[in-house]
Amino acid sequence: MVDRSLFIEAMRHVAQSVTVVTTQGADGCTGATVSAFSSLSADPPSVLVCLRSDSRIGLAVGRNRVFCVNVLPEGASALAGRFAGRFDAEEPDRFGAIDCRHSRSGPVLSGATAFECTVDQIITHGSHDICIGNVTAITNAATPPLAYMDGSFHIVRPEGAS
């Protein structure tokens, strides 16, 4: 096994899209900033997100059996911070005063490209659940995504662009 600190240091240099995963249902409405998101298959259209098993969002997705992955657009770092819990002491309602629409899977945040999903499988690995979702609806904002790497937010530009 590789040393944990070496793994974390190497992962700091991997750029990730910044997403907010939301869910709503009998277990309520909640959301959290998540970077572990990926497309899985086009046949059937499916994605996966990795959520800490004991987190509020992880537990809620497990019970609600639906989730929505909102890929944040560049310039949305304050929204990412809000759903990371940075302002929970001042504003415990993460959805208060933000622009979103509610869907069966969870809130769709304004300006985000969103993948609404029903849970197909949840696989536990270590401290996290790998949540595989079948995509039931898409909101394609067609905007450049916000990225995160080495402890800070970045914007994505084609190589050679100024």
Automatic annotation (TrEMBL):
Residues 11-155 form the Flavin reductase like domain. InterPro entries: Flavin_Rdtase-like_dom, NADH-dep_flavin_reductase, Split_barrel_FMN-bd. Signal peptide: none annotated. Keywords: Monooxygenase, Oxidoreductase. GO terms for biological process: pyrimidine nucleobase catabolic process. One of its GO terms (molecular function) is riboflavin reductase (NADPH) activity. This is Nitrilotriacetate monooxygenase component B. It comes from Planktomarina temperata RCA23.
